[in-house]
Write a structure and sequence with these properties.
two-stranded parallel sheet, mainly alpha, 200 residues, two-stranded antiparallel sheet
């Protein structure tokens, strides 16, 4: 019953907010193109429910081909991020197009954040239980690691720290969420996410 109501909730709100935010998404996308040569949006392959790959949509916040120099964003002054990109990332506005991913059933509003295959290949069998749910726009780990890039900037080896410390902890937080997920836990995560970015 919970999963059915969760999908209805996702469909209803992603549909409404996709329409409401469409002009804003388009204006930010246009600003991105004027600020830095390249497309408005990027499509990143992530692993979804049952480890099925899908294309996650974001407003582009980095210079073209930035992913070739690494998948992690390090610190607030990563030179690959565009001027408008800093603003979009600070308030997570680059994530707004993912409402479409939610609407078509690839994601949920609340659920474990989707990862790239490079890091998914490191998961243990127990950690792969996160794939029993649709990935989400926000979850407990998104709130806990809202300043992940700053944490990584303080590390001598950010890549190793992410793989050995942050990623396992994120997955544990997600598994803890899945073990008790219900409408009220989802609502609490949404409220905490909104509060977090209201304070920024």
């Amino acid at each position: 019953m919970y999963l059915i109501s969760k999908r209805i909730f996702d469909l209803f709100f992603s549909g409404i907010f996709s329409i409401v935010f469409f002009p804003i998404i388009f204006l930010f996308g246009l600003w991105v193109v004027l600020d830095s040569p390249g497309p408005m949006f990027i499509f990143q392959e992530r692993m979804g429910k049952n480890q099925k790959p899908f294309k996650l949509i974001k407003i582009r916040s980095m210079k073209v081909n930035s992913a070739q120099s690494g998948l992690l964003t390090i610190g607030n002054h990563d030179q690959r991020i565009t001027k408008i990109g800093y603003f979009l990332r600070k308030y997570k506005l680059d994530e707004l197009p993912q409402l479409w991913n939610v609407f078509v059933g690839q994601m949920s509003i609340v659920g474990p954040r989707p990862e790239v295959k490079k890091y998914v290949d490191l998961y243990t069998e127990d950690q792969k239980k996160v794939f029993s749910f649709r990935p989400g726009i926000t979850d407990v780990s998104s709130i806990f690691y809202s300043k992940e890039s700053e944490i990584l900037a303080q590390q001598a080896d950010p890549e190793t720290h992410y793989k050995e410390v942050i990623l396992p902890h994120k997955l544990q937080l997600s598994l803890n969420y899945l073990s008790k997920a219900n409408f009220w836990t989802d609502l609490g995560i949404i409220i905490k996410t909104l509060q977090l970015f209201y304070k920024r």
